[in-house]
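Explain this one:

_____
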Amino acid sequence: MSEKNASILVVDDEPDLRLLYELTLAREGYRIETAETVAQAMHKLQQRFDVVLTDMRLPDGLGMELLLALQAQGRPERCIVATAYGSAENAVEALRAGAFDYLSKPVELKQLRSVIASAIQDLPATAAVAPVAAAQHQPMPVNAEQNTAPLRKNALATAGAAGRDKGVKALNDLVGQSAVMQAVKERISKVARSMAPVHIHGESGTGKELVARALHANSQRADGPMVAVNCGAIPENLLEAEFFGAKKGAYTGASQDRQGFFQAAKGGTLFLDEIGDLPLAMQTKLLRAIQERSVRPLGATQEEVVDVRLVSATHRDLAAEVEQGRFRQDLYYRLNVIELRIPALRERREDLPALLQALLARLSKESGFEGLHIDPAFMYAMMQRNFPGNVRELENLLHRAVALSEDGVLRLDYIADCMDGPIDATATAPHQPALAATRPAPTAAPAPRPQHAGAPVFGLPGASSATAYPSRYTVAVPLPSATPAPLFASTGSERRTADGLDLRPASATAASDESRDLPQDLQAWLDEQERGVLIRALKAANYNRTAAAAMLGLNLRQIRYRIERLNIPTEPETR
């Protein structure tokens, strides 16, 4: 289907505006139907459309009713809502309900054409609307959910293979199969197709930019540019020129026109990392750019319409920043339409072996080793560590160990001065089984440093594939002509027990009985205690969060934050 054959339903109670929209869009080659009330629009929706453009306030109801009806029935139409100038709450509410985008009244015709073009971009032929005359003979009731399911299925099936591959690869770059990471990936896939702004919240080093790139790669803007900006790295006096561009002669040294970040990201995604570092003056200018969908370069007299999808990220609690007056509340609501929380590494320890495999595969190529092997004591230390710096800290430790290694074996000695304290080998990592395995005594020494780089092999060269190791900690990269060796390399310092090989360092076996009673992960232990208290309070308050917060001396925002962070159900479990 040609994009110019797309069909659009315009819903507005003002005749002049309906006529203006109809003439403007018909001139672009679109098929236009109009309605002036919710009831008329519902009747018109007995046939299919590509786009529904509706005013928020109508004589017999709200345009939101149309949006919710389309969403409830799984209809393929993309809905655009027009809101009165300054009604940020209405726009945010519409985007959260599933609207593709919004327009602020009075609507600029150039912006209208741009948003409509963005909405119909990437629409598959099977989701297209047949000519209106033909569609009238094949009505599609709003409540006919069974009729829409094949359309959605066909739409997915006919999407471009290249776009799918790009999106799948971006999701695979988010290493981890834990429940929390699977939830993050599912949410990315769900919200990527909308134009709604997304705010990514997570600690430093959790991979927020990778999530932003996955959002871009899975959106209809995947073929457009992805511009990533670190808001905290730009000098304050250069922020406006960097964001909005500048005309020749606008300031000393401006010898030619230059694009800003908004212009460079036109048709794609603008990722604003560490948005919480922006000064208040720049926050005001950014808010206007988001609301008006246009920017004014330094030295220019006219604004330029820009078509970008905004994704922001920060390690700060923006809600707390708003309360303390360091971040504008209206900008917060504009950016935080959809929130994605990225879990810390300590919350997904089961992903650590997969992360090690991915990182070591890359380091193996960079370092010149054919295979990198992990000493058991090194692996034990990794499983014990809380990683306050998350994946970035893990990568830095591996870089250090590889740089100091002379034989390709990563040993605990190489990172001992980076550890918080001595490793207590009598303890095991939280939520993990004891790090012990049974296998024959090693018969081969660690491999010498190779002369050239090759395929990474994790484990002891020459070890039998039948050797038994803990399956959770076995990391291997498949080779074309050989069975991959196990992850752990023997250094001869392991302690043997009646049950097999104990991977704990021998120097740690003399820990006192008192240390065994201490929590191995203080933060995880505290989180578990806090989770139990919150669940008891919620049950006592019949899952009324306001009442539960009052019992614990918290406000509603505080208890909401804790419930989300600790993944606590907000409704009684049904069995």
Notes: The longest strand covers residues 78-83. The first helix runs from residue 15 to 27.
